[in-house]
Structure formats: structure tokens, C-alpha cells
Amino acid sequence: MEPIVRVPIVSQVEERIRELIDSKKYTEGMKLPTENELCQSMNVGRGTVREALRLLQAKGLVEIKPGRGAFVASKQAVDINPVVWLVQNEKELRDAIEVRNALEPVAARKMAETASEAALRRLKKIHADFLAAVKAGDTIQIAELDELFHGWIVRESGNQLLNEINVHLIQGMHTFRSKTFTVPENVRNAVEPHTRILNAITGRDGNAAEQEMRKHLKMVNEDLSSSINAYMHNE
How far is Cα 119 from Cα 126, in angstroms, rounded to an integer? Predict the structure, then answer.
């Protein structure tokens, strides 16, 4: 007799969304139901739906567009040149960076002032793993660890509202990170700012943590401009 296998709830939700796509009810480029609609129809929490969508995005079946929601990915969208994707989604990306600039400097200050020593050790470990991924040239890991670094800072700020806003924001930034870190200059431009942010937070310097985060996000915006301008110049 085969043993009973308990399927994780995220995997069940992922399969249900995949079935929607396979049924052809939602074809390439079409917007999928909102997170709230999926939560209600499957009686699960928003975090579960978000994780399922992210897994489907990683498999190339779903594309999450900043500020717009989840769409059925087309083969063209999956294969698209990363910088072309940045050009096509520039407006939404600028909006997301603007929100991050309002959110993350405050979170960095709060974490520096209030985080536990265990939380600080975890941030150090994330940064060490990030540096290792950069050295190895692993762009997928670089993107994942960049998301984890910033997400951990917001989470450990102790402000639940900031964290809830950021959880939604992360969804839209996931593809952006996977695209932007294929540009070597953008990877290099993240290393030193992350180090300075880490040092400020672990040094319990709230002012410096806030300022270093602002500088970093300004550079993120400038890197986006540089990538787009270089592409447009070569067209």
C-alpha cells in the first residue's frame, strides 16, 4: 500500500492556478484573477497565493507586473531580452522604486534602532550569501538574496504596516530583480551599498542606515536609467 503523501497547501494552490492556465480560460497575456479573488475562491490566505504565483513565475508560466497584477506569461515574455523588459515596464518600475524610497529608509532606521541581535546576525548571513553569489556569478541567487536582504530589513523594522505594504511590493519587484541583475554593472553597484547599509544597521546608527538606504535606492533608479538609455542609444 502506498503511503499517504501530504501535499503542501502552496503546491495545491499552485496546481489550481496552473489548471486555470491549462484550461485556456486564461490565455497568453491575459490578467489572472486578483489575489483577493484567488484567496476567496480557494479559501486560503494571501501569503499562500503570493507564494504560489511566485513559483509559477519562476517556472515561466506567470508574469507579475509591478502595480498591475499577475498575467499568463507568453513565450515572448519569457524569452524577452532583460533590458527590453525594463524598457517596456519602466513606468511601473519607477512607481515601485518611488514607493520603496518612502518605505525602506524608514525600515532601515527602525531596524538599526530596535532589532534583536539574532535579527542582525541573520542580516549578516544574508549579506555574506549575497557576496558569495556575486562572486559565483549566480544571477538567480543574487536576485533572490537581494530580495531577502531588503525584505528582512522591512520585516525586522517592527512596523507591521510597512511589512504588509512591502509584501505586496515584493511581488512586483521579483521580475525586475531577475532582469536587472543580468546587467553586470547593476550587480557591482549593489555590493558596496548593501555593505554600508549592513554596517550602519549592525552599528545601531539609525541616521546612517536611513541615509545609506536612500543612496542605494537612488542608485537603483539611476541603474534603471542607464540600462534603458544604453539600449535606446543602440537602437
Answer: 11
